[in-house]
Structure formats: structure tokens, C-alpha cells
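fold-stage: in
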Amino acid sequence: MTVVIEISGLRKTFSSLRRGRQTALDGFDMAVEAGQVHGFLGPNGSGKTTTLRTLLGLVSADEGEMRILGKPSDEYAEVAHRVGAIVESPAFFGNFTGRRTLRLLATAGGVPPKMVDSALEQVGLRDRADDRVKTYSLGMKQRLAVASALLKSPELLILDEPANGLDPAGIHEMRTLVSGLAASGVTVLISSHILAEIELICDTVTIVSRGRRVVAGPVAEVLASHAKGEFRVGAADLPRTIDLLTAVGGSIVAGEGHIVVGGIADPARISEVLGKAGIWVTELTPITPDLESVFLDLTGTRPTPGVTRQVNDPPGTGQVIDISDETTTGESA
């Protein structure tokens, strides 16, 4: 399988008068294979946006190697026409219409004008294309940003929070769009905080915390590797079921009309114990964690009851990279 994004040992630090030298990326690694929808996840300040900006040549790395579409980072200009990207919230002229905005971008990028209508259609903005951007909702502006990234019919699409501001219907449309692009052979890298969507749409995932990769791989394998070996069990006689499974080493948590059984690795053993006692099993389902729970555990961001998490203001000097992601300041690219 062809690897379209390769990042190895990426390190980046920023200066702050208040905090001194801050490390945004500390030996970060990531690989994205062609044709995948790859989720890129991390808490605020974990290094996601810095990674994307560095990959696209907007910020220089201190150390490490990067290749995109087979080219090293210092030769990115040779493949830039094959990459579409939105990183952070793009700014548009409010008095321009959506169509005029895309036409200007197409002209600047040497893209045929016919691609404008195609991009507007893809993101569901055809009916509002001739309205001024200042009348657009946040979600509509996000759609326009995605449309701008699609103008070049890219082989690689990099999307930073593409569902930001979208309602449930819009999120569904964005999911359908990304799935369709992947089916047509486009590789998509998505950075998002909407973990349920990442779990639904992505083939593979990389999770970063404090500038380091904490896990990477196919979504199903990442989830399965963090399963606790528990089963949801339903039976006609739950009190007796609890006694029987406890007697053979099971740990039991009672639920509403079911129990959760741990400590018994083989589900056949549960069936055997209950079957010999004449108890019909109505449900025996392995419990696999969702991406949100795995993310919270791996990044140490699971909320503690009764504790309010405080987010520090970004330093007031230098160029703020992204107050929604990185909390350090950056240097001019």
C-alpha cells in the first residue's frame, strides 16, 4: 500500500515570554496510506494543528522528516496542486458571494472555472452560492471552506474540524461527502473533536497527546485492543445467573434487565455454565469500548466528577497558532 503522508520524529517548539520555550511536538510519528480516511485526534493543545501546519509548510520544524505524496517537505511545492486543505478557520470577505469567493480562488490557483459549480454542489451550497458570505452561518462558512479545498480535485484532502458549526443533517452530509471522496480514491485526513463521527467514517486513526503519538492503527483494532473482556448477558433468571457466574470466577455488574460479566474470557464458558443449570441465555454480547472512552483513557482527559477543568489563556506575545487547539505561540512561517 502506498503511503501518502509520512511523519517521523517531528519536533517543534515555540517561544513565549511568559512560559519560555514550549514543546508542541516531541518526536511525533504518523503514517497515512492511500485511499484511507484517517482520523487525527488529540486534546486541545496536543499538537494537531501544529502538525498540519508543519506538514503543509506553513511552519518550519525543528527536527524530523516528513513526506507528502512521496515528496520531502522541502519539495512540497511540487505536489501542492494535488493537495486540498483547510487548517483552522478560514477567513472570507463577507461582501463577496460564495460563488465569487470560489471563482477568485480558482483563478488564483489556475483551476478551471467549471470546478466552482462542482465544488458548490458537492458541499450543498448551490442554492446559496449567490448570497453574500456575511449572511452565511458558521456551518455554511465551513462548507465553503471545504468547497475551496475541493476545487483542485485533490488526491489528498486534509480537513481540520470540517464539521465545525454543522447541525446533525449537515454532519451527515459531510460524512457522506467524505465517504464518497474516499470511494473515488481520494485520501482524506480528518482532524476532529467529534469522536463518534471519526469512529463511523474513518478506516484508521492516530491519537496524539502532549506532542507524542499514543496510538495508531485501524479503528476496529484500536478499539478491540482496549476491550476489557466483558460481556453483556441477559437471562431469564438473573439472580441465579449472578450466583452461578460468580461461583466460576466472574465479576458482575448489574444493569437494567441485564448484567455485565468480566473475569471470564471465553463466552462459551458462560453459555456452558448457564446451560447446565437450565437457564436460557437471551443475550451474550462482547462489550467493545467506543472511541470516545479509549481517547479519554489514552490522553488522560477523562473528567473527574466535581472538578472543573481550567484552560489557560494563550500567551499574549507572538503569533497564536490556534487557540482552539494549540495553547502556545508560534513564530512566523
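fold-stage: in (second)
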Amino acid sequence: MATSTVHEPPSKEYDEPITVVEKGWKNIHLTQYQGHWMSPQYIPAVMAFREHFESLSDDIILTTQPKSGTTWLKALTFTVTNRNLHDFDNHPLLKTNPHDLVPFLDIELYANGHIPDLTNLPSPHLFASHLPYNLLPTSMIKSDCRIIYLCRNPKDTFVSMWKFNNKFLPEDAPIPIQEAFELFYKGITPGGPFWEHVLGHWKASFERPERVLFIKYEELKEDPTFHLRRLAEFLGCPFSLEEERRGIIEKIQRLCSFENLTSLDVNKSGNTRIGIKTENYFRRGVVGDWVNHLTAEMIERLDQLTLQKFGCFDLVFKE
């Protein structure tokens, strides 16, 4: 794990008046920072991350919105990049939650007034972030590091977010789905609005296809073999014919599958380093669960808004 030192307040270059505050999900308040919503407690860490992080050319950065398949992406990418270092029968994923193997930069390593010393970590560095593309550090955008973005159908993203937040603060009364829906629809979610977050990475994947890989959760679920090959090639470590013959891709799929990860003791009890119960990261892991929760009116409104936001960018999701 990276060591760290206490940092000075971020420079004025990244500071801006923060005046817009909304009551968020449950008792969590969100504030707008440079056009995106986030918890006020994380803004100093985001500023420090943007100011102090120095990206290396072989860095691998996983970016997602919350509840878009982050845990699965961390497990898959860690396993693909480290497949020559660990035996499948004694793999770190069997004893460690994916979030503790791939730390968040913006809400973990730079949190609580620290600047991490990342020089002692093995290369390539593998990190994660929930930030939208336009808030990633300049050094990251200008470097040759690789950014992998996983997104999910907005209806499933919303339902998963609603379910997660009701588990996150169990002492609070559950937030009614209609109230949560109105917040999501207005874009008031961590890192939101949802549509701007997705579009930032979608556009970047066309502008810098060799450095930004855009993956849809639904397509990854439908054909994991194809997308694991695509992921490995993007990272510069394609599967060899011998690896394919030995069934390495299938072994990675089984190791990182929802069924396997949820069966492990480490993901049934205990907390991650940032204090979230490991079991809260796993719910159903399926596509289309929104049909069990959304009203016809919610579906119509979200579909219309998604078409309005994504229609001219040729961005569609399978359902």
C-alpha cells in the first residue's frame, strides 16, 4: 500500500466557490464542483488528486460511475494484468476484496489530507476513480496511461444505486424509490449527472482510442471472452495461443464471476479499507433488473432523457 504525507491545501488553480448544495440520497448532501455532484467531504481530496497526481506512461486507470460494475472491472483487470504472477488456486482475489487490490485515487489514496507516495508500488500501477473524464488530472490526460471506462444502462445503474444507498446507511430510513428517481433524473448523484459522465468518456474513446477503452456492462456480460481479449490487447498484454489453449480466459472468467466472488468469505463479512461492508458491493449482477422496480412512467422518462442526451452520439444500451 502507498505511504503518504499530509498535504497543504490545494492551490487556487483548482479552488472555486462551492455554493450549490442539494440534499442527496438519505442524509448525504451533495454539492456541485465544476459541473458535477459529489459529497463535500471528498472535494478536498479531489482537488489534491488533480493537483498532485503525476501519471506514469504505464499507469492503468479504471473509471466508472458508482454501481456500474466497478467491483467486477477491478477483479477482471487485476487478474488479467497479474496473470503471470499468481496461481488461480491461491489467488489474491480468494482472500481480498477487489476494492482493496485496486484502490480509489480520489476517495481513498488522496483522502483525509494526504498525498500518497506511489513510487514504491509495483509497476504498472493499477488505480480506480469515480471522477468524470473532464475532472481527471491533466497529467493523466496528457500521459500515455491507459484509461478503461465501464458504464451501464441508466435504468440498472439507478436501481443498483438506490439499493446500495439503502444498505449503506442502514440506521437511516430507506429512501423511497420515487424520491431517489427524481434525484437521479435531475443528475444529482455522486459524480453525476449520469449522462455527462458517460459522454465524457465516450467522446474520449473516439478522440484517443489507443488510450481510452469504453466498455458497456451489458456487452461484457453477454460476451466476456471477447471483451477480455479486447481488454488484454488494449493493455498491451494479449493472450497468447498457448494461454488460450490452456483455458486462461475461461479461468479468469470463473475466478471473477459474480457467483464465485459472492461465495468467498472475504466478500461475505468484514469491511474494505474505506469502511464499507464487502457484502454491500454484491447484489445481483444481472442485466435488466430495473423491470422489477421501475414504474412505466419512470421507464418512459428515463428512456426519453437518455435518447435526448445520447441519440446524436450513436450511444445505445442493450436491455
